[in-house]
Structure formats: C-alpha cells, structure tokens
C-alpha cells in the first residue's frame, strides 16, 4: 500500500477515535447534568443486564452521582455489595429468578428518601437461529426481551399496589428500531401460544411486544402501582450486540467502521437514562423515545393495535403464571381482581378481557 494511502487510513482512524471520544464525553457530561437536576435525595435505580454493554455503562455513570444507589440484575453473578452498588443474580430465562429479583427490586425502590426511582429493563438478547425453546415454550429471544421484563414490571406494580402508597417510579423499557420490521399480529400470537414456529423476526417481534404491552398497560400501571412506563430505542450503539450475526474476523475488521457509524455506549446510556430523567417521567406514561427525541405517545398511536396488544398481555400473563405467582385472583385488563360475578359475566362478555388465570 502506498505511504499516502497508509497516511490517509491512519488519519481517518485517528479522526474516528477522536470523534468517539468527544461524543462520549459530551454524553457523559449531559447525563451528569440531568442527574444533578433529577436525582434528588437518595435516588435509586434498578438496571437489568448491567454486566456488559449499555447496561454496564449506565450502572457506571449513574453510580458516579453521589446520591444515586443502583441495584443491578446480572446473569451469572453472585450477590454482592460494593459501595452504593448492589449486584443480584438475575436470569431472565428463569421466571422464578425474575420473581425473586422483582421482590428485591421492590424493597430497594421502597426504601430511602424521596429521590429518583427508576427501573430500566435493559437486558436484551438476539439469537441467530432458534435452536432451543425455554421451559415456557418460547424462544430465548422472546423470553429475555419480553416475558422477563413483562413479569418483573407487572409483579413490581402489584407489590406496590398491595403495600400502599409508594414514591412514583418510572419504568424504561429498552426497545429497538428493528421493531418496525416486526410482523407481530394475532396469528403470530396464536402460533406462539401453540409453541409453533413463528417468524425469522423474533428479535423485532419481541421488541414490538414491549411497545404494545407498554401501550396497553401503562395507564393501569401508573394508576395502580404509581409506575410510569415508557420505552426508548437507543439507536445503533457500538456494543457486542449482534456480533453473533457475522463471522468473527469481519466483526474485528469492521471495528473502525462501527466506531464511525454507531453511537458510543455513553450516548446509548444517555438516551435510555434521559427517558426517566425528565419533568414528565412520572406524570405522563406510555411515551416512546428514539434516542433523546419523543417519537410517539404509545397509548394513542398504538390504539389501532389494541386488540393484538390485549391478546399479547393475556398470553404473557398466562405463560408467566402472573396471577398464580401473586397468589391472587384473576385480574382484568385494568389490573383489578375479578369478582365471581365478573368471572361468570366474562364468559359471555366480548370486551371483558382477562389478564390471567382464566378458569
Ligand atoms: N447495541 C445496539 O445497537 C442496540 C440497539 C437497539 C436496542 N438495543 C438494546 O439495548 C439493550 C442493551 O444492549 P447492548 O447493546 O448493551 O447489548 P449487550 O452488550 O449484549 O448487553 C445485553 C445485556 O443483557 C444481558 N442478558 C442477556 N441475556 C440475559 C438473560 N438471560 N438474563 C439476564 N440478562 C441477560 C447480558 O448479560 P450477559 O453479559 O451476562 O450475557 C447483557 O448484560 C438490549 O435490550 C438491546 O436489545 C441495543
């Protein structure tokens, strides 16, 4: 290669590195500004999937603020406490582990003074090919991206409702722009419920499911559990996510290009945290952000998909045994327990939609 080409390549790489450094630094600074404004006294944040990638960066940046404590749910970890950081094992493929984590998250968010309260459903997974199904009959992608966060949040909301007044908290569901490639509809949900093959877009479908669930449940979660659910797509972020999709050598060679084209982990972390560090984070619900921009009011914009959304929530409630886990009666779509009369009427009423535990 002629020296001039080498020089050109070297300068491009240096410019890419410098650009990343500056963008990352600006994002970290912006996040600290937001924390200064919204952390309050003894802010508490729960983050899933905090062992690597954006979750790890989020945990690091949030815990730098002196009044923030974090509870991290990490796969393959043992329980430990390091300063204001508490780590707990969380395996989203095991719904009992999710339930145990939800109880701990509830305690953590309940204690302390009246600062920021936030749950970030960050953990995500994308498998190249569906080789195994979990014991709940779905792919690992569906379970980690949707059923896990669904169960964690719904249990949290019910615990908060049962135990009475609690500080308002936001729930940030980490979605993806790939959601637009999803073909999630009632037929696909039937296939899922029947443990049949669905599509090759499992990742997109599971992320779309997060949005539909948020659209149809966020009002009830806010009213009953004082939990204000939102969603955010962090954009394309330079993490190891998706590395299984391409050969390892291409992954290594494409590192400079990814650095130039993708956002840094700090920018991804800022997008996610910013959705909960806003004036209206715990007064409005169901908002969907793309990077830092408000993109949709899910409750309104996903209204045409309400039927499939309700079917999705009903299916998820049954698969996760939500009602049995809470040891209570079946719930309606508003999160209320059903009376015996309700149950009888339900069998004839079309618009009476059970969340779980249909007899
Ligand atoms: N990177 C992007 O461009 C991009 C774009 C849009 C959306 N997102 C979303 O952003 C979130 C974070 O992704 P990332 O880029 O930071 O990817 P990542 O580096 O692969 O991080 C994913 C995290 O999820 C955890 N996780 C995976 N399976 C789990 C399980 N069964 N139980 C518990 N935790 C599990 C991983 O834990 P281990 O480290 O222990 O495996 C890891 O900490 C994901 O929800 C992803 O879908 C990312």
Automatic annotation (TrEMBL):
Xref: Gene3D superfamilies: NAD(P)-binding Rossmann-like Domain
GO molecular function, one term: oxidoreductase activity
Domain of life: Eukaryota
UniProt KW keywords: Oxidoreductase, Signal
Signal peptide coordinates: 1-16
Positions of transmembrane segments: none
InterPro entries: NAD(P)-bd_dom_sf, SDR_fam
PANTHER family with a match to the protein in the record: PHOSPHATIDYLINOSITOL-GLYCAN BIOSYNTHESIS CLASS F PROTEIN, PHOSPHATIDYLINOSITOL-GLYCAN BIOSYNTHESIS CLASS F PROTEIN-RELATED
Protein name per its UniProtKB record: Dhrs13 protein
Biological source species: Symbiodinium natans
């Amino acid at each position: 290669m002629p020296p001039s080409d080498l020089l050109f390549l070297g300068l491009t790489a240096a410019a890419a590195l410098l650009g990343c450094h500056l963008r990352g630094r600006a994002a970290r600074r912006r996040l600290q500004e937001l924390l200064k404004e919204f952390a309050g006294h003894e802010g508490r944040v729960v983050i899933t999937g905090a062992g690597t990638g954006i979750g790890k960066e989020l945990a690091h940046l949030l815990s730098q603020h002196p009044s923030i404590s974090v509870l991290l749910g990490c796969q393959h970890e043992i329980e430990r406490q390091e300063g204001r950081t508490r780590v707990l094992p969380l395996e989203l493929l095991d719904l009992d582990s999710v339930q145990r984590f939800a109880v701990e998250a509830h305690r953590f968010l309940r204690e302390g003074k009246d600062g920021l309260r936030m749950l970030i459903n960050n953990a995500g997974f994308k498998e190249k090919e569906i080789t195994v199904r979990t014991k709940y009959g779905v792919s690992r992608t569906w379970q980690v991206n949707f059923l896990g966060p669904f169960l964690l949040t719904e249990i949290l909301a019910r615990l908060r409702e049962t135990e009475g007044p609690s500080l308002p908290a936001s729930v940030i569901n980490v979605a993806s722009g790939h959601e637009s490639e999803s073909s999630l509809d009632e037929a696909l949900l039937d296939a899922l419920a029947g443990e049949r093959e669905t599509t090759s877009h499992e990742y997109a479908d599971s992320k779309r499911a997060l949005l539909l669930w948020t659209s149809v449940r966020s009002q009830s979660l806010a009213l009953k559990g004082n939990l204000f659910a939102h969603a955010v797509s962090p954009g394309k972020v330079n993490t190891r996510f998706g590395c299984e999709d391409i050969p390892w050598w291409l992954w290594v060679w494409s590192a400079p290009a990814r650095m130039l084209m993708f956002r840094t982990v700090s920018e991804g972390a800022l997008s996610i945290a910013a959705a909960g560090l806003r004036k209206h984070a715990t007064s409005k619900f169901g908002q969907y952000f793309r990077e830092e921009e408000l993109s949709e009011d899910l409750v309104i914009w996903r209204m045409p998909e309400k039927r499939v959304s309700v079917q999705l929530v009903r299916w998820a409630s049954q698969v996760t045994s939500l009602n049995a886990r809470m040891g209570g009666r079946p719930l309606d779509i508003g999160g209320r327990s059903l009376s015996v009369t309700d149950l009888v009427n339900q069998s004839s009423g079309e618009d009476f939609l059970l969340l779980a535990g249909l007899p």
